[in-house]
User: Which sequence fits this backbone?
């Protein structure tokens, strides 16, 4: 089910009505939320709920054993079982076809004539998110960082909580499970603020991503022609805005909906396009994934504890796997590799050419970071390496016989939207939406809210799926 | 932060804004209409599962949609047909889907618009891609998508501001379409002339009628004719061999299981008819298809009562003429014993 759909409006009204009607005690409210979460997921593809159940049961069992077991071998066994099941799901459902294709290519390269039928495996929505979330639970228990969930119901709800089930934020156990222990006392202001966030999120998705930007990105990246430099840049900028509004929109909706239920989810985006460098970027973009990769991949790989070279290797491996997390294609690896390279170059710059960031050079640095990020988006968006490479050549005016496919208004529209996006991120980079709202007059906020809602209504939207659902 | 006050203000302004928007578009002669999208089509496709052999399925392009009026067909035959035709489409992928994925062995009426029927068998090329995408949607649609469609119907039926569609047209009034009306400079060559909607769904089972404006307003009808002329200047070569082979294979399988296949050629007129006669001569295309398919076939030119019908925009019948055409055609078919009248059986 999509947040930007009529069925979700009905679903949410029913869930909120049951949640706030005084007919259910806290345990029954949690059961209702769990059931609602399965309905939310099952309305997409009912049989794939079984994967959620398997993940839940395996990690609950492993977690319980890890909490009481002292024998290091047995503890390792339970951890490995959890990782085997979760990573096994990912390997089969997400990377099965990719692995098979590359295996066949490898055989063909060494002269073995072998062809395999594609497996055409359906990718379960949100599998990368909920498997990472449940793995964090067993890993933290293995490291004795957290207490196990008190009840199976609390744990099942942690795995399945519908606002963040299919596209995050990827929430750590200690941040979410503990919130299920006590009945929520939700204030009127929390509910209304949650509704406001939901409006902002849907506006980002329906109006900004789908209505204003997606078609330009699709036209440019779907073109079979060699494009003029302006067209290539505008298409890339459009995608840059689209993916931010799409994903940040989803996260904002998730945070808002959870807040309406009295549950606090962590921020997933903090105005990333005004980042001052790439370390800053990864503290602002998809925060729940980047912190997951830092804690469960980069640090176990050695982090910065074993010298410079090892740190760079760990950094690059983390970013390459981070790229692969997004999709089973070499283009995602290149995207991750580019970010890894940027991070290493930034560390070298900080070591050998340090300089102080002021408000004057800050905006230039921010713009430079944003420009470099745009280059990586080309590999993220293009389905084929050749398409990406042609786009890069167009962006740097290395194409002859290039063609123009975008009309002037489209170019102006994208420039205005991305200009406003960048300016807003720069202005907001050290504050939050809530702080700004608190300083704003209720009248201004009300009018602003109405404009967003009105634009959502007239945009209508065709119920486009969120981009990150495919990851 | 006084959120309660902000919420009330937001609600009030939103309601006023939406009512004003609705009233404005109604004042511009917009009326509520149902979008003929993939979800709407899939509901009809789903009905095929329960059909018995004495039912009818219609497929083809927009000519079949406009020309066959379901009420009149039902009046004459006693059975309301399932309408699976799609605008600007080849009927081949839909017929293939019915043959391969159902056990249906009743009557299938295939509308043959030569330029579309004999065009291509490439799944991603026009005019194949649209019907194929609908067949795929039917197979893949989620329960959430089904519910969304059912929830959207009352809104579409009651709000003029919903006048927009899956297939974008110039008269659409969603935000994306409104922004597209803004033209600055001539950086890229002009594309297709403005293409407005000229049909309206009059029932929940996809009965399409030409709007009265298309019949009475010649200037408006000319905007549609200009679109046909635009396509006429960019004709794609027919692929008769591949399309015939694909269709005949399915036809053979369908007939082998007892299905009754009927071909129809709905009227066209003016420049379109001249171009069709020149580019896809009847003898080489229609007659050859009928002969090889060896099924009942009805070409409007062969019947006195049908051959002089005029299409206001050269390619589709007005609502009034469509009702007449449907009634006469079904009478001819019944007289031929190509179909039967359930009411008399």
Assistant:
């Amino acid at each position: 089910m999509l947040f930007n759909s009529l069925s979700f409006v009905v679903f949410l009204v029913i869930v909120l009505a049951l949640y706030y009607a005084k007919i259910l005690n806290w345990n029954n409210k949690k059961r209702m939320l769990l059931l609602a979460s399965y309905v939310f997921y099952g309305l997409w593809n009912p049989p794939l709920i079984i994967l959620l159940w398997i993940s839940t049961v395996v990690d609950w069992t492993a977690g319980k054993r890890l909490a009481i077991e002292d024998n290091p071998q047995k503890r390792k066994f339970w951890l490995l079982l959890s990782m085997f099941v979760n990573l096994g799901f990912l390997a089969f459902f997400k990377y099965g076809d990719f692995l098979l294709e590359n295996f066949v290519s490898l055989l063909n390269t060494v002269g073995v004539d072998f062809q395999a039928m594609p497996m055409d495996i359906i990718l379960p929505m949100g599998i990368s998110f909920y498997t990472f979330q449940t793995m964090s639970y067993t890993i933290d228990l293995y490291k004795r960082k957290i207490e196990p969930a008190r009840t199976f119901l609390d744990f099942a709800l942690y795995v399945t909580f519908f606002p963040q089930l299919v596209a995050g934020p990827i929430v750590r156990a200690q941040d979410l499970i503990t919130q299920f222990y006590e009945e929520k006392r939700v204030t009127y202001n929390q509910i209304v603020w949650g509704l406001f966030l939901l409006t902002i999120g849907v506006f980002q998705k329906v109006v900004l991503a789908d209505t204003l930007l997606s078609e330009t990105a699709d036209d440019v990246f779907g073109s079979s022609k060699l494009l003029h430099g302006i067209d290539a840049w505008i298409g890339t900028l459009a995608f840059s805005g689209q993916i931010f509004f799409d994903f940040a929109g989803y996260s904002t909706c998730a945070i808002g909906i959870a807040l309406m239920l009295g549950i606090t989810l962590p921020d997933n985006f903090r105005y990333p396009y005004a980042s001052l460098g790439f370390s800053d970027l990864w503290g602002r973009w998809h925060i729940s994934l980047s912190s997951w990769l830092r804690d469960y991949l980069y640090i176990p790989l050695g982090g910065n504890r074993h010298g410079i070279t090892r740190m760079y290797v760990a950094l690059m491996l983390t970013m390459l796997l981070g790229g692969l997390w997004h999709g089973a294609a070499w283009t995602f690896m290149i995207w991750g590799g580019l970010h890894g390279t940027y991070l290493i170059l930034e560390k070298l710059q900080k070591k050998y050419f340090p300089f102080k960031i002021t408000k004057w050079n800050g905006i230039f640095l921010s713009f430079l970071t944003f420009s470099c990020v745009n280059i990586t988006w080309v590999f993220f968006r293009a389905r084929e390496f050749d398409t990406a490479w042609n786009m890069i050549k167009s962006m740097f005016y290395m194409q002859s016989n290039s063609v123009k496919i975008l009309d002037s208004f489209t170019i102006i529209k994208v420039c205005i939207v991305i200009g406003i996006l960048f300016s807003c991120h720069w202005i907001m980079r050290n504050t939050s939406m809530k702080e700004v709202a608190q300083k704003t007059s209720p009248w201004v906020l009300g009018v602003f809210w109405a404009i967003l809602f009105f634009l959502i209504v007239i945009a209508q939207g065709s119920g486009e799926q969120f981009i990150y659902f495919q990851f | 932060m006084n959120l309660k006050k902000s919420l009330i203000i937001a609600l009030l302004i939103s309601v006023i804004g939406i009512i004003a928007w609705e009233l404005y578009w109604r004042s511009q002669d917009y009326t509520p209409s149902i979008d003929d999208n993939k979800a709407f089509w899939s509901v009809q496709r789903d009905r095929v599962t329960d059909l018995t052999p004495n039912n009818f399925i219609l497929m083809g392009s927009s000519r079949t949609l406009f020309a066959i009026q379901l009420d009149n067909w039902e009046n004459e035959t006693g059975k309301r047909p399932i309408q699976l035709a799609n605008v600007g489409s080849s009927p081949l992928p839909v017929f293939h889907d019915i043959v391969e994925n159902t056990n249906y062995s009743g009557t299938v009426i295939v509308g043959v618009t030569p330029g579309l029927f004999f065009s291509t068998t490439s799944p991603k090329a026009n005019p194949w891609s649209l019907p194929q995408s609908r067949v795929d949607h039917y197979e893949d649609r989620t329960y959430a998508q089904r519910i969304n469609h059912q929830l959207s119907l009352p809104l579409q039926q009651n709000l003029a501001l919903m006048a927009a569609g899956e297939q974008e047209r110039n008269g659409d009034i969603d935000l994306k379409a409104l922004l597209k009306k803004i033209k600055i400079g001539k950086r890229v060559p002009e594309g297709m002339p403005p293409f407005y909607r000229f049909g309206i769904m009059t029932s929940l089972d996809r009965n399409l009628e030409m709007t009265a404006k298309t019949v009475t307003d010649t200037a408006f009808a000319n905007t549609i004719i200009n679109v046909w002329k635009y396509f006429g200047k960019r004709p794609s070569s027919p692929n008769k061999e591949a399309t015939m082979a694909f269709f005949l294979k399915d036809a053979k399988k369908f007939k082998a299981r007892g299905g009754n296949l009927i071909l129809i050629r709905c009227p066209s007129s003016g420049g379109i008819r001249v171009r069709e006669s020149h580019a896809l001569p009847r003898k080489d295309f229609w007659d050859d298809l009928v002969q090889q398919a060896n099924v009942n076939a009805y070409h409007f030119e062969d019947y006195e009562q049908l051959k002089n019908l005029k299409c206001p925009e050269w390619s589709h019948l007005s609502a009034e003429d469509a009702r007449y055409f449907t009634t006469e055609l079904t009478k001819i078919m019944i007289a031929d014993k190509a179909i039967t009248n359930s009411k008399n059986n």
